[in-house]
Amino acid sequence: MTSLTLPHTGSYYAATANPVPLWPALAENLTVDVAIIGGGFTGVAAAVELAERGRSVALVEANRIGWGASGRNGGQITGSLSGDTAMERQFTRILGDGAKDFVWALRWRGHDIIRNRVGKYGIACDLKHGQVEAAWQESHVAGLEATHARAVAHGMGDEVELVRGAALREYVGTDIYPAGLVNRRNMHVHSLNLCQGEAMAAESLGARIFTGTKVDRITYGPRPVLQCAGGRITADKVLIAGNFLHDFGRSRLAGRLFPASLGIVATEPLSEAVAQQILPRDYALYDTRFVLDYYRLTADHRLIFGSGTNYSGRDSQDLDERMRPAIERTFPQLRGVSIDYAWSGQDGISINRIPQLGSLDSNVFYAQGYSGHGIATSHIMAEIIAGALCGENRDFDAFSKVRHWRFPVGRALGGLGISLGMALFKLRDSKLSGAK
After folding, report:
1. The pLDDT of residue 426
2. Cβ–Cβ contacts within 10 Å for residue 10, how many?
3. Do 62 and 212 form a contact (C-beta atoms < 8 A)?
4. What is the pLDDT, as a whole number, of residue 315?
5. Given CA atoms 424, 425, 426, 430 in this order, what sign does their dihedral have?
6. Do residues 46 and 386 touch, judged by C-beta distance below 8 A?
7. Do residues 238 and 223 make contact, with C-beta atoms less than 8 angstroms apart?
8. Residue range(s) in the chain whose domain bears CATH number 3.30.9.10
9. Please, what's the b/e burial string for 381-396 (b: 16 or more CB within 10 A of its CB; e: otherwise)?
10. Which UniProt keywords apply (predicted)?
11. For residues 295 and 278, what is the distance between their CA atoms, to the nearest angstrom?
12. Comma-separated ranges of CATH 3.50.50.60 domains in the chain
């Protein structure tokens, strides 16, 4: 049966993706150990983990592999955990004195998974090392100093460096930042190629992958069943890896997650000389504002640039006009540069910024809510939940016991509330730093 899917968004990633099979739609009845709903990073990474452990796996995706946020993001793989302070508080209650070390190790766990998987399966995804967290204003430098000191204390002295003033020009060709924390362990990547490459790796291990296959309902029971138009999948266990885009478990999960629309553009290819001027070491970068800019170079010397977030639940509009002032403020030498690609993607934001792992039944699990740090975090959560599906519960239990906040209003009003809060943070950053 041919897969009837929506095309990928008009992104740089989609335009330059490696050729992959157009996986078929489900047209049969299957019985497997684990059925996975969702073909983004969480779903495909979990499929690899489970297939490597010898489990039979079927993954269904309503559109294409990497169709959502997994194939539309900024491509940065960093050790920045959204909600890390909240995690430490919650995990101290659950894990005791080892909580801080547990959270610190989580920062880098996704890096190891991705790097090892890319090497093991030969995934061509332009994986590069090096990233800078740039202080937006002088008052933010102390935070970078604290992060640097903590990294050194954990044995990362050879991988991190706090760079100030003119010395930062070795990494980024702009004068707008007073300092930056250089991190050579962090990485950046062609997101869609990584996601699709992992799907092919899972398939090579025996996993069955179906696209253009929407799950109409889950029939709960000792062996849950995914009911789809072209067939059904009976499984010992089910993983829902679809973020806020799915409606399963709405009564249990309502108010826990809100959509954030991320706007990103890619410029025309820059000359080698200009690329060297703006990012001399080919490192990725993001700044320290609450509503931040983030950018990096592609393999063909385009600048991928993301800026701002909206919480309306609708895709960002007029991205070219919105992004250009931020690009030209950062790099005046790019004034007038052509924008070849502009696209939006929706991420899932949890109120306390802690990823949400749990179960809707004894054999139906979910993972969601990575709050803008999805590439590394999705791989960490996939490893944890795959372990839980195989009986290794320690890390899963820690996350499943986290107390998550819930907005006592509908998704639209909740999103509006977050939008107003983000606007205040953005105004605060602007006033504190002056017009840059």
Report:
1. 46
2. 11
3. yes
4. 56
5. positive
6. yes
7. no
8. 128-188+257-350+409-436
9. bbbbbbbbbbeeeebb
10. Oxidoreductase
11. 11
12. 1-127+189-255+354-405
Residue 407: its pLDDT value, please?
66
Which residue ranges in the chain fall short of pLDDT 50?
A: 409, 411, 413-429, 431-433, 435
Q: Which amino acid is at 366?
A: Y
Q: Are 285 and 294 in contact (CB under 8 A)?
A: yes
Of 243, 254, 242, 252, which Cα lies nearest the Cα of 220?
252
Helix (H, G, I), strand (E, B) or coil at 366: strand
Torsion of CA 280, 373, 413, 11, to 10 degrees: 60
Phi, psi of 144 (to 5 degrees): -65, -40
Judge whether 29 and 87 are in contact, CB under 8 Å: no
- As a CATH number, domain 128-188+257-350+409-436 is 3.30.9.10
Nearest to 73 by CA among 405, 377, 343: 343
165 vs 179: CA distance, rounded Å = 6
Separation CA 296–CA 129 (nearest Å): 12
CA 123 to chain centre: 18
Please give the pLDDT value at position 368: 86
Token digits of residue 357: 């792992």
d(CA 388, CA 279): 42
Quote the CA–CA distance of 300 and 93 in Å, as a whole number.
48
Residue indicated by tokens 């968004």: 9
Predicted local confidence at residue 250, as pLDDT: 58
Tell me if 112 sits within 8 A of 380, measured CB to CB.
no
CATH 3.30.70.20 for domain 1-127+189-255+354-405, yes or no, is no
pTM assigned to the model: 0.91
The helix or strand, by DSSP H or E, that contains position 333, with its residue range, turns out to be none
